[in-house]
Amino acid sequence: MVQLLSPEGVRKDSPEYPIDLDAEQLRQALEHMVLARRLDVEGTNLQRHGELSLWPPLIGQEATQAGAILAIGPNDQVFPGYREQALGHWMGVSIADILATWRGSAICPWDTVATRFGAYPVMIGSGALHGVGYAMGIQRDGMTGHDDPSTDAAALLFHGDGGMSEGDVSESYVFAAANQAPIVFCCVNNQYAISERTTVSARTSLFRRAAGFGIHSVQVDGNDAIAMAAVLRDCLRRARNGEGPCFVEAWTYRMGAHTTTDDPTRYRSKEEEQAWAALDPIVRLRTHLLNEHLIDDDWLAALDERADAFGASVRAAIDDIPEPDLVAELGNVYVDPTPDIRREQQELADWLALDPEEAN
């Protein structure tokens, strides 16, 4: 497993995955992770207050996204799972648009082309084929193989360990390998597919399964933002250069629940959670930066103030979510609404026009 920053915050070198990050990039990575965790706290609280229908906690997995933002090129397209909220925000998706999705007010209110951040595939693994299809498209558009990151492009697709049990995901590996598609699969292995351990569905390491499809695969410490950046940079470079797909298994842990409807105390122990808490990605990078004198207590105090301000902006963003036009949203299911969709739109419009007492 590739690890460049030990749990004690000691930096290591890797001849295979060299990376040079300056002090500002490292400080920004720490800030990104702190704000990502704050977004998670606020999202969970908003759901508990009834403002959101559902929220998928990301606490503990911040380093996978902090590493990704350090690796993505100017033309790369991200296909998220449903925990990459922080990454989406860093790429230009507004907090209000993210919250609107989890409130059930919109399907995908952001511009997936302008932000280069795709829609959430709430159905497990359903986005993998879309990502491979996109990668095959940019391959055929001649956007790979020029050894020029300013023009070349790749797709970065996230899915969880549970997604690897889905047929769509296996089929996407076949298509990616057969077509040498410029895509990097980032499997965030947070140890549980909802309430089942990954070991139930996988008798071997997940990155070894990808190798069986003929895909270059790497296992990386997913709680190490520097290692994540180094490995994803290398894999995206390979993809852009026309060297085919890559698979990255980010070995991490979901510290929170699967979603706000889940109770993880029913299927895992306090001892296990405490063991992983000692590997906290934020503490690890913060310790490293303090030891290297790249940050100090004043910088951390200022970060706390920025986090509080960010938290307040997340709460305030609820007021920026417009009331949904349910009839119009039905029309957004397909590019060209089918006759069934048009009939359902009319039925819904007629029902909404009824007197409330009559509708009940």
Task: Explain what the structure shows.
The protein is α/β, with parallel strands linked by helices. Helices cover about 45% and strands about 10% of the residues. It has 15 helices and 7 strands. The protein has helices at about 25-50, 60-70, 85-90, 95-105, 130-140, 165-180, 200, 205-210, 225-240, 270-275, 280-290, 295-315, 325-330, 340-350, 355-360, and strands at about 75-80, 155-160, 185-190, 190-195, 195, 215-220, 245-250. The strands form 2 sheets. It has a 5-stranded parallel beta sheet with strand order 1-2-3-7-6, with helices on both faces. Strands 4-5 form a two-stranded antiparallel sheet. α9 links the parallel β6 (about 215-220) and β7 (about 245-250). The chain is globular. The model has no long low-confidence stretch (mean pLDDT about 95).
Main attributes of the structure:
single chain; 360 residues; alpha/beta; 5-stranded parallel beta sheet; two-stranded antiparallel ribbon; 15 helices
Reconstruct the topology from this structure.
Elements lengths: L22 H26 L13 H8 L7 E3 L5 H6 L4 H9 L24 H13 L14 E6 L6 H13 L3 E7 L2 E2 L2 E2 H4 L4 H6 L4 E6 L3 H16 L5 E6 L18 H8 L3 H11 L5 H21 L8 H5 L8 H14 L3 H4 L1
Parallel strand pairs: 1-2, 2-3, 3-7, 6-7
Antiparallel strand pairs: 4-5
Helix pairs in contact: 1-2, 1-11, 1-12, 2-9, 5-6
